Amino acid sequence: MSDHQNLLAEQRRALILDEVRRRGGVRVNELTRRLNVSDMTIRRDLDVLARQGVVAKVHGGAVPVAETSSHEPGFEAKSALELGAKEEIARAAARMVAPGAAIALSGGTTTFALAGHLLDVPDLTVVTNSVRVADVFHTAQHGAAREGRSGAATVVLTGGVRTPSDALVGPVADQAIRSLHFDVLFLGVHGISVEAGLSTPNLAEAETNRRLMRSARRVVVVADHTKWGTVGLSSFGRLDEVDTVVTDAGLSAETREEMAEHLPGLAVAGEEE
Asked: What is the mean pLDDT of the chain?
C-alpha cells in the first residue's frame, strides 16, 4: 500500500474514532454510507482501532473504551489520531522559531510533527526527551552528511526511562534538564482544562515536564482540540504558566472563550491572528 493510501486509511480511522467518541457508539452500516467505503473496509478499520485499545467492537459496530486517568496510550495509537489538526498546529508553531534559537521539544505526537517542520530552520539547538523527535533530526543530519551539507540542528537527547509514548522521563532526564536553559519549550500534553491545568497519566513524566517548564523562558503548548477537558492522573502546570497554546479550528467557540479567560495567549492554527 502506498504512503498516500496509508494516510487516507489513518485519516478515515481518526474520523471513525471521533464519531465513536462523540456519539458514544456507531454502526458499521452508518459508517459505510458516510465514508463511502465497503463494509469490509470499515470492519478492518474497527479491528485496527480495537487493537490500539481505543474502541471496543460490539455486534454491528463499535463503542468507545472508557479510559482511566492513569491510562497512557502508546505512540503508534496516538499518532493515528487528528493527523490534519496536528499538521496545522505544527506548521503554526514552527513559525514561532527563529534561526539560532535554543528550543526544547517534549514527548508527544504533535511535537513529533513539529520536528519535521523545523528541519530547515538554521542553527537550532534542540533539547528533547522524545526518542521519536530526536530520530527526526538525526535522520536529517545523516542525510545531510551524505550530501555534504551541514546538519539541521544540534540535538541533545536526555536519558531516562522510556514511557509508552517514547518519552524519556525520571531522575536521569530531570538532572539532564536542570542545568539547561531554553528560549522556548514546545510542550505536548495528554490533557488540558481550567480546573486541572496541564496533565498526564504518567507520574514520572509529570515531574520531567515540570522541569522542562522551569528551564524555559517561554512555554508554548501544542494541543489539538480533543485534549481540551481531558484530565490525566497528574497535573504538572497551571494555565497561567503557559505563554501560548496553539490548537486547531476544531475547538468550539464556547471553549475558546472559556480558555481565553485563563490563558495569556491562544492561537488557532489556520485562522487569522
From this structure: 84
Query: The pTM is what?
Result: 0.71
CA 17, CA 62: separation in Å to the nearest integer? Answer: 9
By C-alpha distance, which of 259, 202, 257 is closest to 227?
Answer: 259
Q: Residue 104 and residue 212: Cα distance in Å, rounded?
A: 8
> For the packed helices 3-23 and 28-35, what is the interaxial angle rounded to 10 degrees?
130
- How far is the C-alpha of 41 from the C-alpha of 22, rounded, in Å? 21
Strand 168-169 to 161-162 pairing = antiparallel
What b/e string do you get for 139-172 counting C-beta neighbours within 10 Å, with b at 16 or more? ebbeeeeeeeeebbbebbbbebeebebbbbbbee
d(CA 192, CA 172): 26
Res. 190: pLDDT tops 70: yes
Length of the chain: 273
Residue tagged 467557540 (cell numbers):
253
9-32 residue pLDDT tens: 877 888 888 788 777 788 899 999
What's the longest Cα–Cα distance across the chain? 58
Task: Tell me the C-alpha distance between 132 and 83, whole Å.
Answer: 16
Name the grid cell of 153. 540542528
CB atoms within 10 A of CB 254: 8
